[in-house]
Amino acid sequence: MGDTEEPAGFSFEQRAGFEARQIDQDRTLEAMHRLEKALSDAAPGREASWRASVLGALAVLGTAAAEEVTNAERPDSLLSDLARTQPRLRNRARALRLHYHKLCETIDSLRREIGEDPAAGADFADVRQRLGWVLTALRHQRARESDILYEAYFDAFKLDLGEEHAAE
Predict the structure, then answer these.
(1) Is 6 among the domain residues?
(2) Distance between CA atoms of residues 22 and 17, nearest Å
């Protein structure tokens, strides 16, 4: 990506990076949907099962987000490629990684807090709102990552990622 010559398309490694990223994002999106469903279930009168469902979905989301963080930090990840080959975007890539870590910490913290004392009544509206913020932050993170990756690869290849995938 950093060469002065414009390649005809993405390398095998870059295509593999896009596919790995898509798998990560699909897994995280599925976990987000699972949490949304758990949060939308009725809570009053069924507090224990509601809490268990939310905690289970939150655990799945935490695992998916942690895997996404791990994969984003790999030397062969798209963010690593971008940071290595697009110096002007390096700080934005670093910020994305830091935000991923912060989101994982927030998910873990909320999981501990919600699971801490099942006997103490939960403010369901508060839990829903706080986890809603986490879901919104994850969507924002995904959009920011997509923007920076598309910007970097379009600048490098003058090729839209969708066009590249359609040509395969």
Answers:
(1) no
(2) 9
How far apart (Å, rounded) are the C-alpha atoms in residues 79 and 97? 8
Residue 135's contacts (CB-CB under 8 Å, 6 or more residues apart) are 32, 35, 36
**101 token code pair:** 């870590």
**Domain range spanning residue 137?**
12-167
Nearest to 10 by CA among 112, 81, 84: 81
pTM, two decimals, is 0.80
The whole-angstrom separation of Cα 1 and Cα 20 is: 18
Q: How many structural domains compose the chain?
A: 1
The model's pLDDT over 114-134, given as tens digits with 9 standing for 90+, comes to 888 666 556 888 889 999 999
**Running DSSP on this structure, what letter comes out for residue 87?**
G
Q: Give, rounded to a whole angstrom, the gap between the first and last alpha carbons of the chain.
A: 19
Q: Using the 8-state DSSP alphabet, how is residue 88 labeled?
A: G
Best CA proximity match to 22, nearest among 136, 152, 146: 146
pLDDT for 158: 64
* Coil/strand/helix, residue 72: helix
- Taking residue 88's Cβ as centre, other Cβ atoms within 10 Å add up to 9
Q: Is residue 4 domain-resident?
A: no
